[in-house]
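Continuing the batch. This is chain 6 of the set; chains 1 through 5 are on the previous pages. Same settings as before, nothing changed between runs. Recording input and output for traceability.
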Amino acid sequence: MSRSKEIESKLGFDVIRNEISSLCTSRMGREAVESMTFMSDYITIVRLLKQTDEMLRLIRSSTDLPGSTVYDVVPYLNEIKAYGSFMSAERLRDLGKMLASISEVRNFFSRSQDDSSSPLYPELKKEFENLVSFPAVEHEIERCINRFGEVKDNASAELAEIRRSIASANGSIARAMRKVLDRAAAEGIVDKDVAPSMRDGRMVLPVSAAMKRRVNGIVHDESATGKTVFIEPAEVVEAGNRLRELQMQERREIIRILISIADIIRPDIELIEAGCLSLGYLDFIKAKARFADLVGASLPHVGKNPEIDWFNAFHPALFLTLSQQGRSVVSMNLHLDADHRFLIISGPNAGGKSVALKTVGIIQYMMQCGVLPTLYDNSHMGIFENILVDIGDEQSMENDLSTYSSHLRNMKDFLRRSGPATLVLADEMGSGTEPQIGGALAQAILYRLGESGCFGLVTTHYQNLKTFADDTPGFINGAMLYDRQHLRPTFQLSVGNPGSSFAIEIARNIGLPNDVIDMAKEIVGSDYVNSDKYLLDIARDRKYWSNKRQSIKEKEQHLDKLLEKYEDTASDLKQKRAEIIKDAREEAREILKSANARLEKAIRDIKNAEAEKERTRQIRRELEDYKESLKEPSEDKTIPDALKPLKHKSKKSKDQSVAKDKLVAPKAALTVGDWVKMDGSGSAGQILSIQGKKAEVAFGPLRTTVDLSRLSLAQKPKQSAATQTLSVSSQTSEDSRRRQLNFKNEIDVRGMRADEAIQAVTYFLDDAVQFSAGKVRILHGTGHGILKTLIREQLRVNPNVSSYHDEDVRFGGAGITIVHLS
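Output for chain 6:
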């Protein structure tokens, strides 16, 4: 099927063509728009659609597109094909910009690829990556021509010398003219504010006609009134002649330079023309992409065979018109397949039947012209060999054709040309003649078209065609819906049931007398009148149940998503539960390792204290039983009583805290005067005071502040046992000397939890006071400042701290606190 202006006008594609043409920036782009035609070659159509879609993605990505400036230089190239011819400097400037754009386009699409080295725009890359660039021509034009379209002074040494001479001559003439002007003003020949002017490239002096005899020189011109003459003074005539000679030399040298540039261009004229035409084609693709962005078009799935499965399709020309009026267009969904190839659309007048017909035609025509169609990208479209259109009134007085005759002539052509790859669009089939025979002929024509296997849409008001569509395979009814409550069309297409013409309702809405309407109802009969009502009821019910099905479908989908989400959540919880149990077992093993080490130390202490061997064996036996109990998961296992003083501090997660509570029994409350032992130490001390969660404990002559959590009840040491006292005193003295040797006046608590850091700082300060350290440093870091604040609160209440402040900014600043001890 070739391009038909008549079909394009009927469908509204001429509006689309004009709109795309207006978006082009070059003559070559507009020529490409004008050459757009209906195609049926699948590969070509898909290539053009993908090129436009890729350009649309480029535009929407706000990428700086190359080739934005396209100059029509092809006619200029034709002018220099003859030897000795040349191109003007202004045209050379445009040619230079065009060649630069060709290089930019080629480079852009040659390197456009994603992270996987796949081309981002494969079709555009194929089209433009092989463009030929002309660096020698570009360089020569850039060297000789400036951005204003003038030959540069340094285009040649001769031109530079000539222009220096011209500048010198102009200076000489200006100085001589200034002397003449000053003398003439002094003599009263001219006014003092008179300035020289130019006539025919010569500098002249404006003198009144009465004074012209007093100025020696050549008269070149006079004013329109004859009151002023323009005289070139004799003093500058010779200089003016020299200037004219230099200007002619300049012109000859410029022509020589332009001819030399043309000689460089001439061998590549055909390739340059091809590159310019490619940029014009790029301009054409950009225009199609801008139009697609304007109307919201997209790339559907395109198949080789005829197929119509469209979603949210609308007429682009109607969209543009309504958008200017601030209104929205009504879209439609359409599905035609092998079982239902032909749609018979009925409904009220001015209800949108013809618009639906034109929408199908223009969308299919756009796609097969390589223009992105106005529908959703999940739509499916196929390729048709022909689109046959019978829309509107084609009566012709010249050809002696009536309206009906023109329709019959089109039907004859349809029957001759229709086939499986044909799309038929007929508006008001069978109208224009006596309804009964017109309907019969329309039905017979539709039957033959159906036998040919073609696809099509037909609008009608005939009842026999509605019945025919219900009874004949391959045909299906459709209706343009009508809002009976507000008596206005909705312009929505509903497929599956025929529509009513609503002639009675429309007549009553227009204001036709009721008695006339009643008479018409009597003439046609109540059965026929009620048939419209029945059709309306069927359409309403169909719409209601369609909405219900859609609602149920959406709810089922929602339930499926919820079920899937809950199953995933249950699976995650099961996995997390297994991980928590695994972590709990790992921590229990760590607790056992720690408990074992502490138990060994306790045993050594017991032996040093001459404890009973039976008690030692009992502790070991209980520990082994506890270790065996942790090998298998159990909910009610508890730590043996003998291990309760060996409580281990675990992580603060919720599940692990529960496990810890089950494994470790709480300690007895401690009071002032109790004898206690500190974890990791075998010596007993007495609590002197308790403040919150800390206690001051005296271990012999040594006093220290300790967390209550690190203390456990102990027996009061026997005062009469001198050897025991000596042993404790000796051990304490030895530990003290060792700690003093290893003491540093700096502690780093970065990365510790708050409670660990405070406890470490407390022990550190106690040691510092004991070892008479006057100043210490605490490294806590900056972070959010929480650790620093807690530590300084502890320093503020410590009686041994006289003052504290930030370290010097050169040595750490706010990340370090300097503490002065009293």
